[in-house]
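Task card 7
Instruction: Convert sequence to structure tokens.
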Amino acid sequence: MASASHPLSLRLGADGWRALEDLARKRGLTRAEAARQAIAETAERERRRSGLAAEVAQLADDPVDRVERGRVMSEMDAIAAEWPE
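Output:
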């Protein structure tokens, strides 16, 4: 499937413009390509964060994991009590 091109126009403030210029220069890209990469990278980072949050929530609701977590925390508390302050 061929990807369609969708034009986008936006206004950047001075900070955004400088950030885009800097990113493009450092990567040796046009501003447009730097913007496309930045959007794709941000979207991927958000997908990973959402996935991690869902995994954490799933583990928090898992009764077996809760029991194991409690056991490990008790063991760590016992060890920590032996350490001098």
